[in-house]
Amino acid sequence: MKVIKRDGRKVDFDKSKISSAILKAMKNGSGIVKPKIAKDIANEIEEECKGKDEVSISDIESMVYDKLITKKQRLTAKAYEGYRSIREFQRENENTIDTEITELLSGESDYWNNENSNKNPRLNTTQRDYLAGIVSKDASRRYILPPEIVQAHDDGLIHVHDLDYLIQYMNNCCLINLEDMLQNGTVISETLIEKPHSFSTACTVATQIIAQVASSQYGGQSISLAHLAPFVDISRQKIKKEVEHELCDIANTFLEGKELENVINKIAEERLKKEIEKGIQTIQYQITTLMTTNGQAPFITLFMYLNEAHNQREKDDLAMLIEEELRQSYLGVKNEEGVYITPAFPKVIYVLQEDNIHEEDKYWYLTEMAAKCSMKRLTPDYISEKIMKEMKDGNCYPVMGCRSALTVWHDENGKPKFYGRFNSGVVTVSLPDIALSSGGDFNEFWRIFDERTELCHKALKIRHQRLRGTKSDVAPILWQHGAFARLKKGEPIDKLLFGGYSTLSLGYAGLAECVKYMTGHYHCDEGVGEKFGLEVMQALNDKCSQWKKDENIDYSLYGTPLEATTEKFAKKLKERFGVIEGVTDRTYITNSYHIPVFIHIDAFAKLRIEAKFQRLSPGGSISYIECPNMENNIPAILEVMKFIYNNNMYAELNTKSDYCQKCGWSKEIKLIDEGGKLIWECPNCGNRDVRTMDITRRTCGYKGTARNGWNQGRLGDIHDRVPHLDDIEEE
User: Fold this and answer.
1) pTM score, two decimals?
2) Where are the domains of the chain?
3) Which residues participate in catalysis according to the annotation?
4) How far apart are CA 238 and CA 232, in angstroms?
């Protein structure tokens, strides 16, 4: 006689296993072990099953339970049933999250080792965050998201971002209202923090706010240096009084009147510059060394916009802060060997405007510093005040960390407000999959387009619904103490979810591959390729506009950065449609509207073409230029920056910043292809251990490091990038 196990396997009947299970139940039930009863039940079941070829394990378990009840062994029966239920639960859930957890903790999983280039998967703090994420994803898949969304996500038709946080009542990214928190006070960890009385204290408070906000949400955040600028003059006046007191006896003997005042001012300014240096250094080092509850440094962006100052004195003070930030960014931070390297954070944005974009401008020197810093440290990024004002109803303001951009919103007084606002989440549609699913038929393309975008819409509404009813108590720093709002304790955040105060992002990826399949041309080809690409972008915008009109929720089109998902989408496309030249023949798909990284095109043509698509991505986008080593040709970089000012709202310049700790090599460390796998190798000593190399690359907006890892898809993208400045590089 055979016993049919739950997994379908057939094994020989063995009555000793029945009696053994009953004896274990007796120990956990009444505590009184009765071997005779266990043996009798096993014999009775064997007798009753005689003549049968097969019997299921569940039938045997039911017979055991019934016989225990018949023999008045109720406590044993209860213990046996409990054990059986637990084993059934374990069997149902084994090979699901158990496998993920085991792979994560073993440190041998390619997925977890390369999931995020800004998280070290070997750290307990990171693993704890990932463990919570595994639980959240499991819950999201089982009962938060409907089956059609889960299936579309698994098949790579869409991507529901940050499933590892969906179970919690958390937002995505934000612009911190640092001005309100510093000027009007805040509360951090139930401790009242009043308005700072010096610039250095304001910097310390700012870093504490950054850490708290980062631990209360799951995306990037931005602050403005303009909100710290007023505290420069507070320190100035404080230092002047100290100097006056110190010199009152000595200087009065030798100096008087204007001469004394000049000496006081000179000494005060010198001390003020030292305080500014220390304050900016506090921000730099705190951000680099802070570890949030997410197991990483805060994803923080510093916004540097001169015209955000309230008056000329404040503007000049802000210029000093920008100068110091650029100086320290250029210097970098020391690694464990004491060598200056490029840190991943903070990300820095420098605004190009009319009084810093021409050689004769007052603040041109800052732009020159920014250009030099970009070529050495991949920072800052650049926003054009001119183009942003054209696109954002006359306003210029920061993007949120990874590039997500708010729409313009006005308060009850009709005044535009940006700080204190946030994004609630992102769902991305794979445009190449729509194209390939259509078979190249345009009518079918638009039919599938409607279906897929509606799937994204449905998933975004679930994200929005998860936040509705959330009480301000879940994150007091955000909702009660000024980062986003000053709601009362216990007050729901719902009013901030409607009317455009916050946003939901419809992401898109692979416009290049989509257009290539449908038209035979990439969207950078003037004519049919570009025309269709712009039509797709407009159609995506139209969807957002309609949803916003119908629901009073601000949906916005977002150029998805695609870190790890670039590989996932590429794999799924190959599985579904095979290898198609120019469409599915690589390990990655192209980010958002970008021109594919392997296309040879000069910097100005790339920026000019992408500017058209950037205007149709109002929820966030960025264009980049891949640069060779241009540290000896800064004038060429400045020409690119002037072009950005006149054409692109948001752009960045990519270069290389590497160091091999084994041999001291400080030039480019390259990717090599070994048996179809890309790995980093020092060209000087052959070192391949990324734990002993400092390699920083632009991942997808943020800087990332090889030490924390990229998957093979993202490495393929990095490997294939061609420079866009060859023609204007100095010989």
Assistant:
1) 0.85
2) 1-94, 97-144
3) 172-173, 400, 402, 404, 423, 558, 563, 701
4) 10
